Give the backbone structure.
Amino acid sequence: MNARWLGRLLRGIRAGEGHSILKYLALTHVPNVISVKSEWFRSGEAMPLRSAGVGVGENVSPPLTWSGVPAGTQEIAIILEDPDAPLPRPFVHMIAYHIAPNNRMLAEGALNREARDVLFGKSTTGAKGYMGPRPVPGHGPHRYCFYVLALDLPVGALRAPNLRTFLKSISGRTIGYGCLVGIYERD
């Protein structure tokens, strides 16, 4: 079956925001106080091919900067999800944590699997590290939400947690967040 044809067939099916990480009890009522940016794209604009996933682009994580981290932050975590995936829940592309609280930027490639000074949870497929955009061809534009989370206690060394386990571990510990949204589409 042609992937483009399948993408067009599934075009109206999207996970949506109803199951976004912000809807989990661990993150409800957390203030959106962190400003997240990338020199590769502005929020709501197209991500470059370089950041696209394996088989599509170079799968290099974009450089990220953030400001407005609340006082008392002990650790930074980043979750990347695609709420437009044709699945019941958003596709989790990456869970990264154990980022120093005084760190305000990550260079390009700093979230790739072989990164140091960062711990990774499991994506929806069970992979660790950055998994760039790779939507089904013809499915339309997808949003890739880079959530930067400020935690008031370190998570600790969890053993590659999935999203549910990770969110449970940060329940009551998240004191602020910010989001950068990149757009990617494959025709």
